[in-house]
Amino acid sequence: VQVSDQLAKSPGWDQQVFNEWLMRPSHGGHQSAYAHLRVLDIDKWLNSKIFFRSRRSRYLPGATSTAPTPILVHFNYHPDKHKRMLCIMDRYFYGKLDACDNFPGGSEPNT
User: Fold this and answer.
1) What DSSP character marks residue 53?
2) Cα separation, 69 vs 89, whole angstroms
3) Collapsing DSSP states into helix, strand and coil, what is residue 89?
4) In this predicted model, what pLDDT tens digit does every residue of 43-84 receive, in sequence order?
5) Dmax of the chain from CA atoms?
6) CB neighbours of 80 closer than 8 A, spacing ≥ 6?
7) For residue 58, what are the contacts with CB-CB under 8 A and spacing of at least 6?
8) Helices 2-9 and 14-23: crossing angle, nearest 10°?
9) CA separation for the pair 83, 90 (Å, rounded)
10) Are 43 and 55 in contact (CB under 8 A)?
11) 72 in helix, strand or coil?
């Protein structure tokens, strides 16, 4: 309820607001969610920016990739999310190792 109330009153990125409320310690009338922080392996639980941009050389080209197979790839960085999701599926579900090789690192060609 606290997250939805905050987002109803002011603009914000839902994931960020959720994380802020989740980690907020108990104080006054607020009781903590008693969440435990867990750090996941960035090469197994990654987002599209990690895959296509910041650690690109570990994942691409696909035929010579040194990165482990990810458990999850979250697409939150690139505007052409659907096309990139399809290439990830082609690569990891259907074995087409070069499926993502032609995508630029950023959101624009030649990046």
Assistant:
1) I
2) 12
3) helix
4) 899 989 899 999 999 999 999 999 999 999 998 778 888 999
5) 56
6) 107
7) 43, 65, 66, 67
8) 130
9) 11
10) yes
11) strand
pTM: 0.66
> 51: closest CA among 106, 6, 5, 111?
106
Rounded alpha-carbon distances, angstroms, from residue 1 to 7, 9, 22, 26:
10, 12, 12, 16
DSSP H helices in 24-80: 48-49, 56-59
CA dihedral (35, 76, 90, 67) positive or negative: negative
Q: Say how many residues make up the chain.
A: 111
Quick check: 83 and 89 in contact, CB under 8 A?
no
Question: Can you tell me the distance from the alpha carbon of 77 to that of 91, in angstroms, rounded to the nearest whole number?
Answer: 19
